[in-house]
Design brief:
By secondary structure, the chain is of the alpha+beta class. It has seven helices and eleven strands. The strands form four sheets. The chain has a four-stranded antiparallel sheet with strand order 6-7-8-9. Helix 1 runs antiparallel to helix 2.
Length: 232
């Protein structure tokens, strides 16, 4: 005799990068177990793999989480976490005023927002006739880089160049050799390269803004919380 099937709740969210409204469901026990095991391993790649798998399954495979920009992945995960485990989460934070004192802080995941600058474009004009079209980095791209290596910043920027155009033609990334792309980036002036860097600095970010009081100094400071693991 077949056992009864448990009903699954459905909710909606808006994907920050596309404004598309999608349905999702909360974690099931098997998915929560996957996430806990990844956290216990302490391996960043295991955690990212678990999060990507859970997002894909919980959005009924309408989204391939491996292809999501970082901020989309973080925002969707927070929404899943809020509906699956609870709308509040307790995390440890460091008080900004002394940079040392750690306190527990309860955050409301419903108040976590994806902040998008009003004037933000992935089209970057390098000259009057030449420019690039950028894509947002994925979390797997960032995690695979050694961020203490100065060359990693260059590699991340190059990995996010989707197209290069001039007044006659659009050059697709798949049609460029590694050497051609390297030569193009290396030929930029400092000011031109800074435009590419600014694209990342202005990228939408998932943030929670609050205040925290230092119990040792009595000072209350503004605090901005961001980063995937802070919202677990």
């Amino acid at each position: 005799m077949a056992l009864p099937s448990l009903a699954v709740s459905k909710y909606e969210l808006t994907v920050p990068s596309t404004d598309e409204v999608i349905e999702f469901r909360p974690f099931l026990v098997k998915e929560e177990k996957m996430l806990l095991l990844a956290q216990q391993s302490g391996n960043e790649k295991d955690i990212i793999k678990a999060v990507e798998s859970i997002i894909t399954e919980c959005t009924f495979k309408k989204i391939d989480a491996k292809k999501l920009p970082i901020f989309d992945l973080e925002y969707i995960f927070v929404q899943l976490r809020a509906k699956s485990i609870g709308e509040t989460s307790v995390i440890n934070v460091t008080c900004p005023d002394d940079g040392e004192t750690k306190v527990e802080l309860e955050i409301n995941l419903e108040d976590v927002k994806c902040e998008k600058p009003e004037e933000y474009s992935n089209k970057i004009e390098l000259t009057d006739t030449i420019g690039v079209i950028m894509t947002h980095p994925r979390i797997s791209t960032i995690s695979s880089m050694d961020m203490e290596d100065a060359n990693s910043g260059f590699e991340i920027i190059k990995s996010c160049i989707s197209q290069i155009y001039d007044d006659e033609q659009v050059y697709e990334r798949n049609d460029m050799s590694k050497k051609e792309l390297d030569d193009f980036v290396n030929s930029m002036s400092h000011q031109q390269f800074m435009k590419l860097q600014q694209f990342f600095e202005n990228m939408p970010r998932v943030r929670y803004k609050t205040k925290v009081k230092n119990p040792n100094t009595g000072v209350t400071s503004d605090l901005v919380i961001e980063g995937l693991q802070n919202f677990f």
